[in-house]
Amino acid sequence: MLGDKPNTVVCIDEKFFTKRKRNGEGFVGRETEGHKTIVMGFCELDCSTSPRTCTGRVALVEIPDVTRRTFEREIKKRVAPGATIWTDGHASYKWLGEEDSGFKWDYVIHSDGEFYKDTEFSFEHDGPVSTNAVEGLFSRFKKHVRRTKQVMHPNRTHYGNWIGEFLFIEKYLNQKKLKGKSWRGVAFFHMIRLVLVRACVCIDISPGCPAIR
Q1: Based on the structure, what is the number of domains in the chain?
Q2: Helix (H), strand (E) at residue 97
Q3: Is the pLDDT of residue 188 over 70?
Q4: pTM attached to this predicted model
Q5: From CA 88, how far away is CA 105, in angstroms rounded?
């Protein structure tokens, strides 16, 4: 689970992905009711390094609403008990500050212009509380969605597939994380592995040369 290792923090945020609308006067805005798709993002940070870096462990999930019940369910499903969590000031996160929540929590209030603040937690390399890491994850996901829409015109029911495709790319096709040219072979092998798992084929990963049986 996210946050299960020492010196890690889990940044959490939610984002509305909506259709644009234009009124008679040419104003372009966002229309949420009836067209809203809400995605909740999780990004684990390693605070033992300076500057802090993402561990590569991330999650995106489509959620039906932004109520406390939904937030609490998704957080407890993906974040280890006792982990440190950073969020924005959304009211549905306030339960994290309760003594029996099972988590350590801090937050920034974006509506007040606060995007970072000094942390009170003890890590090897202290730094400001911020949700920039998960917001960067959303930014990359948005770009992926826009590229997809250039070649097809799916509706909101396709967001689950987009999320799965994006997370695969984020994990296996990022050359900076894998370093060198080996990422192509790694990505191809894991793609085949996932296909075979879905087809209920047993896979044996042995050191050196992966074998499929």
Answers
A1: 2
A2: none
A3: no
A4: 0.74
A5: 11
